Amino acid sequence: MNIKPLPRVLYRNNPLVEVIAQVRFSTQFGMRTAAPAEFQAALGSDYPVVYVEQMRGMNFSFEDGAQVQQSSDNFNIYHFDSLDGFWRVSLCHEFVALTCRRYSEWADFQVRLNAVLDRFIRCYSNVGAYTRVGLRYRDVLIRESLDLAGVPWRDLLAPWVLGVYGAGSMIEAGEEYPGVESGIEMALNQSVLNLSGCKVGLISGLAQNPDGVRGFLIDTDFYMEGLNAWSLEN
Questions:
Q1: Helix %, strand %, coil % for the chain, to 5?
Q2: Burial (0-12, 13-18, 19+ Cβ within 10 Å), 85
Q3: What is the reported pLDDT for 177?
Q4: Which residues, in sequence order, are CB contacts of 187 under 8 Å at separation 6+?
Q5: How far apart are CA 119 and CA 104, in angstroms?
Q6: Could you tell me the pTM of the whole model?
């Protein structure tokens, strides 16, 4: 990837709320109807808590007014969680994924990811066409948590992330920037960058948690697509 190298930094107040690595593959029809008992056994005590998410397909028709019909395209996503709830392995007939909700550093995440993928390959050795590999980072920066309440976003973030929040030319002389910020009802920046064989989907903008605290979301998805986009040796 054509990204400027930077030194790795461990933050005391880590803004990462979620990191997801996902490998997608061609549809495996056998996995739609069979529960992943062998895969569960392979994960063992590392991910002992199981949740089954039922996905329901819907068909919409607008010929004679809006009509909604449930289709037969239903399937399950199986989630296997660690006891502390910080790690989750997800599996369905089209992807396997690892999610971390308390990220510390890449070395720790990579060890977990390689172990999960190794167990997946041993259980599903017949999967031969991997179509997408992605690594997604979701940061939410809350100024109050960083003792930076009232500091303008333009003083904290790069211009290519800020969008309209960095539009200092909109401000009249003597007007405080937070006044302009509070007047923005909704702004979401979305772009896709091509970086020498890898693409990056970027979403940024203001977000609000369930407690009503506003923060700045930076959602980056690094991915490669195409047949055989991934192998464990990559």
A1: 25, 40, 40
A2: exposed
A3: 46
A4: 163, 164, 165, 205, 206
A5: 23
A6: 0.83
Tokens (6 digits) for 98: 């690892």
More confident residue, 161 or 222: 222
pLDDT digits (tens, 9 = 90+) for 105-145: 999 999 999 999 999 999 999 887 899 999 999 999 998 88
CA distance 48 to 60: 38
State the Cα angle at 93 between 132 and 75, rounded to 5°.
Answer: 130
In this prediction, residues 184-197 reach a mean pLDDT of: 79
Measured between alpha carbons, how far is 87 from 47 in angstroms, rounded to an integer?
Answer: 8
Write the DSSP assignment of 84-134 as a string of letters: TSSEEEEE-SSEEEEEESS---HHHHHHHHHHHHHHHHHH-TT---EEEEE
Q: For residues 144 and 223, which has the higher predicted lDDT (pLDDT)? A: 223
| Structure-token match 């909604």, residue found | 68
Model pLDDT for residues 41-51, shown as the tens digit of each residue = 999 999 999 99
**Contact predicate 110/75, CB 8 Å:** no
pLDDT score of 40: 97
Whole-angstrom distance, CA of residue 120 vs CA of residue 18: 22
Can you tell me the distance from the alpha carbon of 214 to that of 168, in angstroms, rounded to the nearest whole number?
20
Which two structure tokens, joined as six digits, stand for 228?
């055989």
User: CA distances (Å), 185 to each of 164, 181, 205, 206, in order?
Assistant: 11, 9, 11, 9
